[in-house]
Design goal:
- The protein is mainly beta.
- The protein has two domains: 174 residues, Immunoglobulin-like; 145 residues, Sandwich (Immunoglobulin-like).
- It has five helices and 22 strands.
- A hairpin with a 5-residue loop joins β1 and β2.
- The chain is elongated and about 115 Å long.
């Protein structure tokens, strides 16, 4: 019996290291050195919706949602010249990535290929990394201290950004900083990128008013266009800065943005609904920064019933400009979603009465010509 016990005990001892953190997720490099693979988790943004344009926990794992991921060494220059001399500065260089669900209720980032932390014990220098991610995927430009990308906003893009910065891990008298293999093997948490929305979102609901004086009821009208006016549409996203920050979205220019459907076409003309109203289009996502007011143009015309009942006005449409602002006049905030209710009260005939005042008799005047 004793002969049988020892082999089983030995087998148990030999199996334990295979499950330990030191030897999990390893890659062998060209020198035969064992490296730790980079593993990234993610936390979804918080706007609750199941729409196509807006990205959140309900749909961000679906095909077509491509994220960019950067793993950059803290306190190093990130420009092309510096990276040419030391490729490990950009551990992950704008990898086109997707989000995958992991049980029971988390998410992981699927990179374009496996990446491994450099073997710092070979050079004597462990680089400390932070990880950055953004959406939608774009071309990234680097300077010595920043990584940026640009977008042209049309109201349909949902721009997301997230970062994972390591918290200091103290073991004995040693403080480990930044993500690397040594940090993780000393018990540091794996990086988790927490995403946030960088734009403000508006949805629209059209409801019929109940003005009894209407000559044309709201049910014979349709809202044809909703346009945000004078919106800055040239956007530059700072994905990363060398002090392990980022997420600033700078916007300039001025253009109009029209409400669209989920498929990118202009929003379908919508007849006002009764009771709770009818939704129109998908949504409009615009920069906020310190904005307290948006100018919005709304175009209204007759629907098919209205054209039949009022043929003289069949080809007419009417555009008015309104302002959207919060009740307390405070600035709009990125990551907030607002539902705007448009109450359409129908149309009244314009009736103008006229009164003619008779001529008053004035003094007769004479001119003598000699």
């Amino acid at each position: 019996m004793k002969r049988n016990i020892l082999p089983y005990m030995l087998a148990a001892v030999l199996l334990l290291p295979a499950c330990s953190k030191d030897d999990n997720n390893t890659i062998i490099d060209e020198n035969g050195d064992e490296l730790m693979e980079v593993s990234l988790n993610a936390t979804a943004p918080t706007i609750n919706t199941t729409t196509k344009a807006v990205v959140d926990q309900d749909n961000w794992t679906t095909a077509g949602h491509n994220f960019g991921v950067l793993g950059l060494a803290n306190s190093f220059n990130w420009d092309d010249t510096s990276v040419a001399a030391d490729k490990d500065i950009r551990l992950i260089d704008n990898a086109q990535s997707t989000i995958a669900a992991i049980l029971p209720n988390g998410y992981s980032i699927t990179l374009d290929k496996p990446y491994a932390y450099p073997a710092g014990y070979i050079t004597g220098l462990y680089k400390n990394y932070s990880f950055y991610s953004y959406y939608p995927y774009a071309t990234v430009s680097y300077t010595t201290t920043t990584a940026t990308c640009t977008y042209t906003l049309d109201g349909t893009q949902d721009i997301l950004w997230g970062i994972a910065v390591a918290e200091d891990k103290t073991v004995g008298d040693v403080v480990y900083k930044g993500y690397n293999a040594r940090y993780l093997r000393k018990g540091g948490e794996e990086p988790n990128i927490n995403f946030n929305h960088l734009l403000t979102r508006f949805t629209f609901k059209i409801i019929a008013g109940n003005d009894p004086e209407n000559n044309i009821p709201p049910t014979e009208l349709e809202v044809r266009k909703i346009i945000f006016n004078e919106i800055p549409t040239n956007a530059t996203l700072t994905i990363a800065q060398n002090n392990a920050t980022g997420g600033e979205l700078y916007c300039d220019g001025s253009d109009d943005i029209i409400l669209k459907n989920a498929d990118g076409t202009d929003a379908t003309a919508t007849t006002p609904g009764t009771d709770t109203g009818v939704s129109m289009g998908e949504s409009i996502m615009v920069p906020s920064n310190t904005t307290t007011l948006y100018k919005v143009s709304i175009t209204i015309g007759l629907n098919e019933t209205g054209k039949t009942n009022h043929p003289a006005l069949a080809n007419e449409e009417y555009t008015s400009q309104f302002s959207i602002e919060k009740s307390d006049k405070s600035a709009f905030v990125k990551g907030d979603s607002h539902e705007v209710t448009l109450t359409v009260n129908g149309m009244r005939n314009i009736n103008i009465s006229a009164t003619l005042t008779h001529w008053n008799t004035g003094e007769d005047l004479g001119i003598e010509i000699n």
